[in-house]
Amino acid sequence: MPDLARDEAAALLADAVSLWRLSPGTANEVIDAAVQCLVAGVDSPTLRELAGASPRDSRFVLEPLIEDTLDELGMEDVLAVNAQRGAFAAVLRRFKRNDLSARELVRWAHTNIGHDGDARCQVFVDLDDMYDTVDYSDDGTEDLDRWTAEEVDAYLEGRRSPGRTTVWRTPSTPTAVICGPMRRPRQFEVRISPSGRTLSARSWDDLWCSLPECGVPWRNVSFESNHVREQVLKAWGEHPDAPAS
Predict the structure, then answer these.
(1) What is the DSSP letter of 190?
(2) Which pLDDT belongs to residue 115?
C-alpha cells in the first residue's frame, strides 16, 4: 500500500478524533477511521483494539484506547491542540475534500463554536448569518460560497482573514423617525432606516415595545419635524425618554 494511502488514512483518523473530542457522544467515525487505517497498512496493537471497539462503549473505555493509539502511531500532537480549533480544522479539511458544502461548514461553525467562541473562527459564524439573510443582501449565495472558500484557505494556511465580513459585522445603527400627520387618533407612522420598514405606534409604550424588534436603540429616535413633535406630545403626553427634536 503506498505511503500516501497510509498518510491519508492516518489524517482521517486524526480528524475523526478531533471531532470526537468536541462531541464525544459517539465514536462511530473514530472506529471507522481506525478500521480504514488497518486496511491502508497502518498498524499498532491498540489501533487493532480500537478498530474492534463498539461505538456504544463509554468514553471512559474509549478515551484511553484513543490516547494509546495516537501515542503508538506518533500522533499524540492531535490531543495537544485546543479541542475547538482542532475540530474546526478537521471540518475545514472535510470541506476541502468536498465532503460538505460551504453552507454546511458555516452552519457547523455557528452551532459548535458560536458568537462567543474562538475569535479566529468568528468570520465563519458571521458567514452563516450572512447566508440566513442573503435574500435581503446585495450579495448572492455564489459570493458567500466563494468568500467561505477564501476564508478556509486563509485559515488552513495560517494567513489573516480576507475580512469579507468586516463591513457586514459593523452596519450602521438603525434609526427611527416619527412621522406625521396622525393617521388615526393617537396613531403615528414610524419609519426605520436603513431597512425602509414602517410601523404604527399609538403611544410611547407601543413605540418602545416595537423598537427592539427593529434593532433601534431608544436614543436613535427622532421626529420628522417640530410640528410632528408637538402633535405627538399632545396625543401621547410627555415622556422622560422622548427625543428632543
Answers:
(1) E
(2) 85
